[in-house]
UniProtKB/TrEMBL annotation:
This is leucine--tRNA ligase. GO terms for molecular function: ATP binding; leucine-tRNA ligase activity. It holds the Pfam family Anticodon_1. Coiled coil: none annotated. It catalyses: tRNA(Leu) + L-leucine + ATP = L-leucyl-tRNA(Leu) + AMP + diphosphate. InterPro entries: aa-tRNA-synth_Ia, Leu-tRNA-ligase, M/V/L/I-tRNA-synth_anticd-bd, Rossmann-like_a/b/a_fold, tRNAsynth_Ia_anticodon-bd. Keywords: Aminoacyl-tRNA synthetase, ATP-binding, Ligase, Nucleotide-binding, Protein biosynthesis. It comes from the Eukaryota. SUPFAM superfamilies: Anticodon-binding domain of a subclass of class I aminoacyl-tRNA synthetases, Nucleotidylyl transferase. The keyword Amino-acid biosynthesis does not apply.
Length: 434
């Protein structure tokens, strides 16, 4: 094996019209016989070009390194830039990428590490295999040769039956099973399949964007379930997140005018937020930040829905609180968030803003639910301040309608109070009998 000299690179491959297998196990490139036959420039002797070339993957296997230093014409990647940017934090790809890309990327990276081009043994810190989005659930019923319905749980052989797809509006759910509305005794098979043109269950994203907007599609795909799990598409399900975005818009901008348009500006005010408003905001911040790190985008969206529900009950919408919430929303619904950001009076895109961070002082629960026992048996719970004294806790328990009937007119032998845990009132049974 003799390498080409640098002045012979890059080597131009021949034009081929026939790429069919050779039948000998040799690559199709061997069909370019005149190109394969060559001369060794060092010895002048006849030579044969190597035809078992690497696939195009060889280039895609190290593209992430080139992104770190794309304009460097002297070396693959500058050592300082590679050390700063590498290794890649997260690699997201389907399970099929394990051999189509990931395996070879790791091979190449380890070679580059051995020759001193990169500073890390592994190219990626974290691997995430995202789940598939399956088509909508299909309901299949069965008919016998006489055209009569056969239940899917029948003892009869379903392989001899004719399968028939049934529209969702003719189906109802009974317990864990799906049955015909007109005949609940006929159980159906319900299954979601991988989207494919052959099944006719492909959802065109352009159609969804046209009807609901890009933010709704983006948000729904994240809200369907954990990133790593396979999920079943439901066109009806997108309505929920679309309504959430609508509620968020109206929370900030206000109700629509009679002609359906919205007035300029927002409903927010420059008042100082209350402690409770800050507590709700920072709890949302903490949860969204944690769920993003753990790729649990669906529960991050749930946290923002809870915030919007709470904010609708406020008398005022403090600008500082709404500003922070819009920044929280921006990775999930960037178009809506950007529009709200400018309506809130900001001249520069929110893409340049720091993502909000929760402060611990607002995450501490000031009130707790405290179990109350009478003679060692739990009789109810009360809501008390975390720093409440034993006497105050007892007074709250004694005035509670559910607990007072156990205490009224009774002599108390002692009280056992564990702050933040429990209150146990021991009655004097002897005095109670006399």
């Amino acid at each position: 094996m003799v390498p080409l000299t640098e002045n012979q690179l890059p080597l131009t491959l021949p034009e081929l019209d026939d790429f069919t297998p050779t039948g000998t196990g040799e690559p199709p490139l061997t069909k370019a016989a005149d190109w394969v036959r060559t001369t060794d420039v060092l010895t002048g002797k006849p030579a044969r070009r190597e035809t078992s070339t690497m696939p195009q993957w060889a280039g895609s296997c190290w593209y992430y390194l080139r992104f770190m230093d794309p304009k460097n014409s002297s070396t693959l990647v500058d050592k300082a830039k590679e050390s700063y940017w590498g290794p890649v934090d997260i690699y997201v790809g389907g399970a099929e990428h394990s051999v189509l890309h990931l395996l070879y990327a790791r091979f190449w990276h380890k070679v580059l590490y051995d020759i001193g081009v990169v500073s890390t043994k592994e190219p990626f810190k974290c691997l995430i295999n995202q789940g598939l989005i399956l088509g909508e659930v299909e309901y299949t019923a069965y008919r016998d040769n006489e055209g009569k319905w056969v239940s899917a749980d029948s003892d009869s052989s379903l392989s001899d039956c004719i399968q028939e797809k049934v529209p969702a509006d003719k189906i109802t759910k009974v317990g864990d099973n799906y049955v015909l509305k007109d005949d609940p005794n006929i159980r159906l098979n319900a299954r979601a399949y991988k989207m494919s043109k052959s099944r006719g269950n492909v959802i065109n994203p352009d159609d969804v964007v046209s009807e609901y907007g890009a933010d709704s599609l983006r948000l729904y795909e994240m809200f369907m379930g954990p990133l790593r799990d396979s999920k079943t598409w439901s066109t009806g399900g997108i309505e929920g997140v679309h309504r959430f975005l609508g509620r968020t818009w109206r929370l900030v901008v206000g109700a629509p005018l009679p002609d359906g348009s919205y007035k300029d500006g927002t409903m927010v005010t420059d008042v100082e937020p209350t402690f409770e408003q800050l507590r709700v905001l920072h709890k949302c911040m903490a949860r969204v930040s944690e769920e993003i790190q753990e790729t649990r985008f669906n529960t991050a969206i749930s946290a923002m829905m809870e915030f919007v529900n709470a904010a609708y009950k406020w008398d005022t919408q403090p600008k500082s609180v709404i500003d922070s919430f819009v920044l929280l929303l921006s990775p999930f619904a960037p178009h809506l968030a950007e529009e709200l950001w400018f309506r809130l009076g900001h001249a520069q895109s929110l893409a340049h803003e720091q993502f909000p961070e929760a402060k611990n002082e607002y995450l501490k629960e000031s009130e707790i639910v405290l179990p109350v026992q009478i003679n060692g048996k739990t009789r109810g719970t009360i809501l008390v301040d975390k720093e409440c004294s034993e006497d105050d806790v007892f007074q709250i328990a004694a005035s509670d309608d559910r607990l007072s009937k156990y205490l009224d007119g009774k002599a108390i032998r002692k009280r056992i109070y564990v702050p933040g845990r429990i209150l146990n009132v021991i009655l004097d049974q002897q005095k109670a009998r006399t």
